[in-house]
């Protein structure tokens, strides 16, 4: 299990704004991925402000449990063999859930399909996401730090090229997908 602190900024934008900023990075490739979100029937993880998913991308399955941290989210990740309830019986995942007091049955909550292009800036990943869930399509730009720096300032400099400015307008993908259930 790999643990790391995730610090990211997200901005929901219109399709036109997305295309404008995206056009400034012509050598990108969009790759599909599917996020399947899990919790207990009574949403114990959500009550703890946690989110758990298995992401399928290029025939690989990445388990992620995000837990709150004062500086962002702590991500606990490991590759698993499949996208199914069975993976929650794996010892390292079961231990992690037990540490959070989660002992009840895990169920699938919702799916979200993302078509993503990632630009590595050397200090962050700039992600262009087209998200589809429950008949909705939205457009999101993420800026995830990979090195220590003033992320908001740098993200705003990138966004300014398309006349955009960062503001906290973007609930998480799981929150958006669940709001449409």
UniProtKB/TrEMBL annotation:
UniProt organism field: Dielma fastidiosa
Descriptive protein name: Uncharacterized protein YjbK
Xref: Gene3D superfamilies: Hypothetical Protein Pfu-838710-001 (2.40.320.10)
Cited InterPro entries: CYTH-like_dom_sf (IPR033469), CYTH_domain (IPR023577), Uncharacterised_YjbK (IPR009195)
Domain CYTH, chain residue ranges per copy: 4-181
SUPFAM superfamilies assigned to the protein according to its UniProt record, in alphabetical order: CYTH-like phosphatases
């Amino acid at each position: 299990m790999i643990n790391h602190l995730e610090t990211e900024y997200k901005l929901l934008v219109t399709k036109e704004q997305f295309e404008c900023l995206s056009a400034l990075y012509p050598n990108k490739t969009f790759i599909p991925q599917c996020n399947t979100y899990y919790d207990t029937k009574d949403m114990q993880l959500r009550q703890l402000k946690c989110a758990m998913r298995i992401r399928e991308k290029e025939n690989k399955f990445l388990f992620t449990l995000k837990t709150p941290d004062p500086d962002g989210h702590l991500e606990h990740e490991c590759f698993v063999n499949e996208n199914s309830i069975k993976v929650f019986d794996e010892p390292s995942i079961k231990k992690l859930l037990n540490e959070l007091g989660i002992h009840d049955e895990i169920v699938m909550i919702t799916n979200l399909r993302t078509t993503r292009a990632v630009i590595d800036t050397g200090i962050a990943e700039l992600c262009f996401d087209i998200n589809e869930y429950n008949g909705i399509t939205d457009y999101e730009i993420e800026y995830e730090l990979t090195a220590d720096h003033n992320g908001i300032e740098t993200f705003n400099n990138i966004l300014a090229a398309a006349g955009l400015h960062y503001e906290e307008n973007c609930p998480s993908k799981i929150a958006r997908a669940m709001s449409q259930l």
